[in-house]
Amino acid sequence: MKEHGVDLADLSLGFNTDDMSERPFNQLAFMVERGSRLRREVDIPVGVSWNLGVPALANRVIEEGAIDLVFLGRPALSNPHWPIWAARELGHGNPFSLLPQDWSFWLDNLRAHDAALGWPEAGKQHA
């Protein structure tokens, strides 16, 4: 794959056969082990999705080097501000600083009460 110019593998499953005996839809990070194996055997960066929407978990699999990229399909659809929420959950000192300057200025200086933004209490994990 690498010799033919593949730069990144986006690993997923089809679940399109009748002989599926185990359906891992509710297992957190169930594609990580498969992605890690592909990464080792093929020697190219690998990204996976499937139940990696909890910031601490997504961060852990990247820090441990199991995979190279976390794809956030459903988590990003359900919370378009997921990266800011994740930064806060992971202890970033000023998550709004990750935004474009004009947005972060208003959120840092004129946002009113945190609850007015729908900002969950820090440290409360939401799956």
Brief account:
34% of the residues lie in helices and 6% in strands.
Verbal overview:
Helix content is 34%, strand content 6%. The protein has 127 residues and is mainly alpha-helical. The mean pLDDT is 84.
Show unreliable segments. Answer: none
The proportion of residues in beta strands is 5-15%
Question: What's the number of extended β-strand segments?
Answer: 3
Shape: elongated
Give the CA-CA distance, first to last residue: 35 Å
Overall mean pLDDT stands at 84
Residues in helix, %: 25-40%
Largest sheet: 3 strands, parallel
Trace the largest sheet across and list its strands.
Answer: 1-2-3
Order of helices and strands: EHEHEHHH
Oligomer: single chain
Tally of helical segments: 5
What structural class do the secondary elements suggest?
mainly alpha
Rounded to the nearest angstrom, the radius of gyration is 18 Å
What are the salient characteristics of this protein?
elongated; three-stranded parallel β-sheet; mainly alpha; single chain; 127 residues
Topology:
Elements: E1 9-11, H1 32-42, E2 46-48, H2 55-63, E3 69-70, H3 73-78, H4 82-89, H5 101-109
Parallel strand pairs: 1-2, 2-3
